[in-house]
Task: structure prediction
Amino acid sequence: MTATWFSQWFPRRKPVIGVVHLGPLPGSPRFGGDLDAVLERAAADADAYVKGGADGLLVENFGDAPFFATQVPAITVAAMTRAAVLVVSTARGRPVGVNVLRNDGASAVAVATAAGAAFVRVNVLSGVYATDQGVIESDAARVMRLRAELRSPVRVFADVSVKHATPLRNETLEREIADVRDRALADAILVTGAATGAAPDVKSVARAKLCAGSAPVLVASGVAPSTLAGLDAADGFIVGTALKRGGKTDAAVDKQRVAALVRAVRAL
Result:
């Protein structure tokens, strides 16, 4: 049985969580000099998700590439806090998450706690991965101690075999999930494909669900109406690219695409 808190957050089965991809923030190479414009776009995307029927939202600093492997600068934390507060106010009571790329889980907890968000996403909470940012190691000790210190209610959603990364340990998916759940203390498990917009292996989703216990398992890349049938073992979906105009990750959110995916999920 899936955790009670998840069912309380998302009364409808198999929730759809839309990703608000922030434009480049101050301090990043492609920042255009107008933070207000970035925030206006974030609010518009969040509103499109809400109007399309999404069950939750996730804010991430997608436009800040190239990413720091771990700790981000103070200006990124400040800008993301402003964005998270804005998205929370636009979400109309829906749960909102924060992901500080590439793997600053502690800053995500701080931002989410200050902004009144419900959860964070941490790409590498457990294990060691080779990525385009270099080698990234587990962030669980820092993340979980900060959450306890702040007495924060935020939940931690953690990836296993995360996209754009190769694990440096030769572990089975079942072992990875056991470690991230029981030793890193993740509240929910995320399964992705190899890259942004790529669907995970269908069998991996089913295996993850079988061994995750009460922890919710969500598919966090490659979700679209055409791929849902093979991913129906999941408890929910985190979606960005497929819900953008033309299916392009950096485009604006298309509420018609959101509504179409929500309908398809409800029909599972």
Q: What stands out?
A: Helices lie at 4-9, 35-52, 74-90, 105-115, 140-150, 173-183, 202-211, 255-266. The chain has one domain: 13-266. Residues 13-266 form a domain with the TIM Barrel fold (CATH 3.20.20.70). Residues 35-52 form the longest helix (18 residues).
